[in-house]
Automatic annotation (TrEMBL), chain A:
Name of this chain's protein: Fibroblast growth factor (acidic) intracellular binding protein a
InterPro entries: FIBP
Any one Pfam family match given in the protein's UniProt record, by short name: FIBP
Example of a GO biological process term: platelet aggregation
Automatic annotation (TrEMBL), chain B:
GO cellular component, one term: cell cortex
Localization: Cell membrane; Cell projection, Ruffle; Cytoplasm, Cell cortex; Cytoplasmic vesicle membrane
Gene Ontology terms describing biological process: insulin receptor signaling pathway; intracellular protein transmembrane transport; positive regulation of D-glucose transmembrane transport; positive regulation of protein targeting to membrane; positive regulation of vesicle fusion; protein localization to plasma membrane
CDD domains linked to this entry: C2_KIAA0528-like (cd08688)
Organism placement in taxonomy: Eukaryota, Metazoa, Chordata, Craniata, Vertebrata
UniProt domain C2: residue ranges: 1-109
Identification of the protein by name: C2 domain-containing protein 5
Region (Disordered): 243-310, 779-809, 923-942
Organism this protein belongs to: Esox lucius
Signal peptide: none
Biased composition (Polar residues): 243-263, 779-788, 927-942
Amino acid sequence: MRMSVELDVFVGNTTIMDEEVYQFWLDGYTGNTTFTISHTQHPVIHKIYPIVDLSCESCFLSSPSEVNDAVKVRMEGGVLEECEASAEVLHSDTMDQYRTFQMCERLLHSPAKLANQLLFQIPPHRQAMLIERYYAFDGVFVREVLGKKLSKGTKKDLDDVSAKTGVTLKSCRRQFDNFKRVFKVVEELKGPLVENIRQHFLLSDQLARNYAAIVFFANNRFETGKKKLHYLTFQDFAFCAGQLISYWTVGAVDNMVEDMDVDLEKQFLQDLKELKILITDKDLLDQHKSLVCTALRGKTKVFNEMETNFKNLSRGLVNIAVKLTNTKDVRDFFIDLVEKFIEPCRSDKWTAGDMRLFLTHYTNSAHILDTFKHQVLWDRYMGVIKSCILKMYHD
Amino acid sequence: MPGKLKAKIVAGRHLPVMDRASDLTDAFVEVKFGNTTFKTDVFPKSLNPQWNSEWFKFEVDDEDLQDEPLQITVLDHDTYSANDAIGKVYIDIDPLLCSEAATRICGWFPIYDTIHGIRGEINVLVKVDLFNDLNSFRQSSCGVKFFCTTSIPRCYRAALVHGFVEELVVNEDPEYQWIDRIRTPRASNEARQRLISLMSGELQRKIGLKVLEMGGNAVVGYLQCFDLEGESGLVVRAIGTASPNTNTHSNTAPASNACNSPSKDSKETLPSSSPPPFSPSKPCSRQSSSSDTDLSLTPKMGKTSPPPHAPHPEFPFFTLTCFPPGFLVHVGGVVSARSVKLLDRIHNPDEPETRDAWWEEIRQEIKSHAKALGCHAVVGYSESTSICEEVCILSASGTAAMLNPRFMREGCLDDASPPSCGFCHIPYDEFNMPFPAQLTYCYRCRRQKVPDVLFTTIDLPAEAAVTGKGCLIQARLCRTKKKAQGEVNATAISNLLPFMEYELHTQLMNKLKLRSMNALFGLRIQISVGENMLLGLASATGVYLSALPAPGGIQVAGKTPSDLNYDQHIATMQKRINDTITKNKELYNIHPPESTEELVGSPIPDRQRSRLFRSTSESSDELLELDLSHGKKDAFVLERGSVTMSINMFVSSGFYSCNTEVMPGIYNWTSGLQMFTSVRVYRLSNANLTNQGLNKIFTELCENLLKSLYFKLRSMIPCCLCHVNFTVAVPEEELIQMGAVRLNCVCVCGCVFVCLFVSGSGENEDQLQFSMELCADSTPSNNQPTSKPSERCSPLPEGRSRSLRSTRSMPCGAPVAVVKMTPLSFLPGTRIVKYLGIINMFFIRETTSLREEGGVSGFLHCFIAEVFAMVRAHVAALGGNAVVSYSMKECVFMENPNKNQAQCLINVSGDAVIFVRESEQEATPPLMSSGQISSTGADGTT
């Protein structure tokens, strides 16, 4: 005689959620994923892992919290022991939670609603957890779409991204939609970008900063996918984005306009053309070089390489500045930094310390040049360039 | 013109998009009461409209105020076509009619549509101005308070217990009217919701009238049921206990409950293991029309106290399960009655006599059973029905008891609390016992006789002495029957019932002994009828009462003692049973003093040892039969299958469960609380069902459900599932619905954690102190003379002013207030300062896109969550922060997967209350007005 479960629901007045199951859900394991318990030789240790495609299973087994949780379950409740139905129980529990999450998903799209909706009674700290985790993203995934247009076309390519990164397609879509949603909302808001994201999506400061970076990159379409840039992590880019937002955007001068933190300040980019004099004027270039060399002599092991390369390096940095009025060149900003500056230094085996020393003196020496009149502009430019390069200068 | 109802529509939020073109909505609201309708202006192009309407005023009779709900419909204005309905809110005005309950209803309500579920929220403000009613012939009963709680509400004092009130109203079910064929499902659902709301309002009003006639002012233990009789119509019936209850004064008496559900065919289950005498009633097909009979019998207060055996008011029934100490003198045992009826269309809703007559018959039977037990009253009384097509089983059960006559007369006792064993003593004549039972001298006082086991439907009396802990005990049973029609069917069911009751009883008995316990509390036996099977489910909480003798062991015996293998097998089984008993003693901490065995008065006769006879058949599931003529002491009968099952009873440490309010033997409660509902439906695929196969499946289902619950609630360990309420139904052929298991989980501290929960562990005592202050009747150790009502000042006015203040100081747009829900009548670690009124809601949800909504589970999950949300919203709007005595009375689920459709009906009830934490009594109660206007601006489309 057979029986089948036709319907099986469990609803608590206070919505019951298991963070672990939530993570499974976010990671895109379908509700049909069955959880089994594998009895190991040791009578106390049980493991819970989802049966999914084998490529992912290993990562669950490796998670210690998984095992800990199972052990905890076993010791506290003895719930799972000696009941043949344990897989069923887990399955039923998982399904309940998945349904809850699915119903919550609509609310998570505008997190402010979560606080004043009536359908689920969720304690505030749980709400915060739900939101934070929902908007969390995988570093590997975001690297793939960073700087790309958040369009339907990109979304179509997500299965490739999924295959490449090992992040499930469902999770890729969620993350992509999150980016897009945040992008759309803040696009029309005035005021500081990070603050807007934080308030509108109730995210932690760190996560809001990361989203600001993503929005900033997507808006300016910075190229990040070139092979030469592969060594850079999302955090490197996020840092640079923070620098650019703080110093180069409209918001750096005026904090009450639309898109203030998203667009680079046009006038500033225009003004940067003035810096050209640093490389076109031969006297100025030589003077600059000798000032830097004097300052650095004896302080660095790569002095000779620096001295030889000075003109090239300086030309590289100033040319980047000069070309920034072209949208195309803005997009290539990071690739240019790497090609024109970071790679030559790396091949000369500069250390990070050398780099810091050089950039500091390179920036400061320009102030001493009598014919150079654009001190403020120069500082605004070099301040960002210096911190970006320092962040990007690693293996 | 006794009343003026005023309503104001403030704002809406999170409305659905009704205009695809603009992604916005042009919403307006219709406010309807009775036949009067008002409309707000259209608030164009917004999902968060701010209507800020004027006050809509309805001048109405208070009769209407009681019957009618305020109906609020949110619509989308459409210039060219008909306006689209977004959804509705029904608001029950009743709580505003009592002067001491809520003063206004104000807050966010989910906008509910029977097809789409919750679609946004609306902020509403409702007030009532009542004029003094001088008409003595009035039809309304404003001011009578209703409580679902089956004990005397914690901040009241019962001065007097009147007795039983009952009422019943019938109507045609709109779902089955001819017009249903041409109207939309939405219209039909709404008609049904509205009708039921009207009927329950009417019912409540009529019961209120009866209470007023008796001189009472409240109904406690109010139990309202719907019988969806399909073609035959719709019956709403209610029972309760009437009591005069003024909340600032102490003269509240629990009122008698009225039940007017018709039931017949009774058998009684006695506390002994003897098979109850069955008198299956012959099925009678009648045209059923429900009527309200005047059954309410109130023992006249102040009159002569009824001597134990003297004729008593017609139905001395009490729906209460928890009593003030001293109220119960003796408890006889469970009495129950069932009858099978054939339903016929209700021809005349104004003459519901047939159904009244049915129930009256059943009540008479219960009464006679109680009499046979030497008792003059029935406590913990409840009535229920199970309907399948045209067959209806009416059931009633309660506990025969002797009450303290002084209570009926004076309302409260001023002498010291009775001995803790008093209620265990037999009320009947030792030499003229109504059934064979083993009597011994009470193990505590050694003076009176006690039975060897005690079954009751009430909660464990507070004064009872218990050894060890209690636990949930269930007996489960399936019986197949042939598909049949009409009288044949009814006869078949009638014939099966006695056997089912007997077997359930035996199972309970055996499981009780297996756990080494000797008494059952909160016994609830549910028999559900399906097309080709009957299901029986009995749940109770087993305890070891120190006053009763230790249960005997269990003896297994085979029918063919010659077979050596058999003997061996039996010996193994015996051993396992004995081991289990030992293990259980350990588990439940049952270590009764051994020495007392010697003192037992009656010598144990030979017949005390009963034998199990085992049939010779090879099948492993054969029945072991018990020779029932033998004494009960050591009796144990089980199917072998179930023996194994109960031995392998699954135990998880840190988890306790019971179906009574509190877990016997556990006293250190924390305030952590989680109420939940779980519903399961199974489909049995094989048509060749056998009784044994079914039993096995059924037992597995129940056990699995429990396991599942334990797993889900593992984070709350150590905890206790209290008030676990299983409901089973056989909605259609081969489908078992484990409906609406409403459970309440309360964390209790295990011994390890005691210090962690300091604030919670003192709870019981604190509560007692508090009740002493306020409700002398419910305090077990209350020695003080009861002060006069007028002298008592209740903390309530204080409580209110405090809450009002806090409302004002609350910042606008505060997050949604937390509303706790519990089936218990109290919240551990807290004090209920005010009862705001009864919550009684009925919802229908239907879908025509079942698959898209996540299948049946997704559909129901969402619906239950929505029901919770609506209950919480109503409580919050009344100014409350919890629902106590919450229960889901009905959960009917129908589906048609081929058409991608499903429908579900849910009825919930409870008492809205304001509580304050024991530890922070001076702090403001966590009351928030969720209806601040300014909050709507914040969540707009910023």
